[in-house]
Amino acid sequence: MPLRPEKLLKVMKSKLMLLLFFGGVIIYILLMHDSGNKKISNAITFKEKLSVYGLFSGPMERLEPAPDVEILELGSTLFTDYAEKQRLVKLPKGKIMRATGNGLPRFPDGTIIAKTFYYPFAGKKHRQLIETRLLIFQDGLWNAATYQWDAAQKEAILQENGATVPVRFADKEGKIRRVNYKIPAQQDCSSCHRSGNELVPIGPTIRNLNIEVISNAKSQNQLLYLREKGLLNYKQTDHFDTTPDYHNILLPVEKRARAYLAMNCAHCHQPTGMAGRKSLNLDFATAYLNTGIRYNKQHILERTAIMGAYHMPKLGTTVIDTAGVALIKRYILSLK
């Protein structure tokens, strides 16, 4: 028996609504899924031992840079379970970095960037070295590897599969903390260092290097210091922005929170990052109206404040950054 026109119309409307609903779900999943990110492999073979790269002078555990290696300091840094970091850059002899704007400088082929993670006051030891991550720029491509420091703290060995290191330490307030520090696997490097289908450094942008540092017992702009040492080239008329230090409580909450999100989230949440397809662009230079923060306020609060599969950032933290979450909460609640 054929359906009456009004009944047929009702059935068709119901089917259309179901189709639109499930179609919307499928589109949402496709947009949010990161399957478009191809695997990035190294184009070079890393040495088995960190000592081969000649980054340190004297016993390696002292972390004293070799004469041809320079320390880099950043305006705002990544939170990694309260670990401290030493950042180094080693340029090929006679080569120089070039500043072309507020982003990453142009690094010469053969550049090595090293970041060592350690805890200053860990257990009975004065310092516990955990890992050193290397980025090597070769033939126009960046390559990444991680080295785990041995129990004797004399050498670091190439670690491709990741590892967990229990650490007991005192934080800056003297509170005793325990973490199971996770050293990332080789395949995890591209999760944070991805830009399109290539790896890139994250922290040492010109904006983030444009800060005052202490050198030769005096305060000096770091860009100027690097230029005077013949390591960085830029014009005297060039003007560069600065990434605020999000720890500085004298700065406006908005600037501090945007700097925190930029350093801890924007490596993925920017157009060429791992989460480039999603609705957040947290690069510090992105205008607020284009960041997506307005529409994702609740998600940002929730995902930074809990651990587990839902936690953000995905890698590098096994505990909540309570100060960072409090800063984000103050910022989110201040938004109209």
Automatic annotation (TrEMBL):
GO molecular function: electron transfer activity; heme binding
Spans through the membrane: 16-33
Taxonomy, superkingdom: Bacteria
UniProt KW keywords: Membrane, Transmembrane, Transmembrane helix
Descriptive protein name: Uncharacterized protein
Source species of the chain: Pedobacter terrae
Lineage: Bacteria, Pseudomonadati, Bacteroidota, Sphingobacteriia, Sphingobacteriales
